[in-house]
Amino acid sequence: MRRTPIVLALLGALAVTGCSSGGQTAQSAPPASSAAPQAGGARFAVITHGAPGDSFWDVVKNGAEAAGKQYGVSVTYQGDGDPAKQSQLIDQAVSGKVDGIVVSMANPDALKEAIGKAVTAKIPVVTVNSGADSSKAFGAVTHVGQSEDVAGRGAGEQLKAAGVTKLLCVIHEAGNVGLDQRCKGAEETLGGTVERLQVDVSNLADVTSKVTAKLQSDQQVNGVLSLNPAVAVAARDAIKDSGSQAKLATFDLSADVVEAIKADEVLFAVDQQQYLQGYLPITFLNLYKANLNTVGGGLPVNTGPGFVTKDNADQVAKLAEAGTR
């Protein structure tokens, strides 16, 4: 049927005004905004077990601050390896009535009470890095980090393929549940023997000394897995000092580790992409505050693992210089 100009005009008017079920005209919905929800003026506290100045945690801090700048929210970063002091920082954030808290849980039991106070105060909490198994039970919105078991198993597979049969797993923080999970994961897939060596990350000279002594006393050890980039560099020096032919791998990145990979001194680094552990929690808290969005459905949001090898070390090195890897 041929439409007259009058019919076309009426159709256009109906498209603009619409029609309600009661026969009355209704205004059309306003156009949807293309801008992301913004929790403007919100204050978020990031409280980790890694102090500023640590090469790993500085990248986490960079990610959190970049997200804060993008969303127009305030982000403060504080870190302390002492669980009691970390709990105090959480209590201070709760007293200051922040709009959200990001917290790493290397020692979950020690932080349970402080995190409980935040949840009771209706302050959303996102856990990061360590403590994924306790995150949901403690009332956190979600957890952002690496599955330490999965990452450990991946490292064990890589080391087995490289011919390692007896592995020294170097733990640098006593009581950190995530570090033990890494060693256990490697043990599951290596198919050989895994021994643990406890060291103090704050005394790297002593780390080199202890790893050197172990390699000299047990020449069957033909692989070393460090769980921290600074410890990796100390272990590299120990391998040289002891004259060992042990193969070295590590968790996490630093500029020194990337250079060691390029120089064939480190086989690979397990990369949990810690920039995301700063950036994503602020993103999630911003969306929760501005739009009541939740992420994960009770499951963690994984940021890894990835593997940095000689094949991609040059690309990663450029990103590490920018402070994002």
TrEMBL record:
Alphabetically list the UniProt keywords: Signal
Q: Where in the cell is it found?
A: Cell envelope
Q: Which CDD domains does its entry note?
A: PBP1_ABC_sugar_binding-like
Q: Which InterPro entries match?
A: Bact_Solute-Bind_Prot2 (IPR050555), Peripla_BP_I (IPR028082), SBP_2_dom (IPR025997)
Q: Which SUPFAM superfamilies match?
A: Periplasmic binding protein-like I (SSF53822)
The record's section on Pfam families has:
Peripla_BP_4
> Which region is the signal sequence?
1-22
Gene Ontology CC, one term: outer membrane-bounded periplasmic space
UniProt superkingdom: Bacteria
Q: Where is the Periplasmic binding protein domain?
A: 44-285
Any one GO molecular function term: carbohydrate binding
* Family according to the record: Belongs to the bacterial solute-binding protein 2 family.
What is the recorded name of this protein?
A: Sugar ABC transporter substrate-binding protein
Q: Which organism is it from?
A: Nonomuraea turkmeniaca
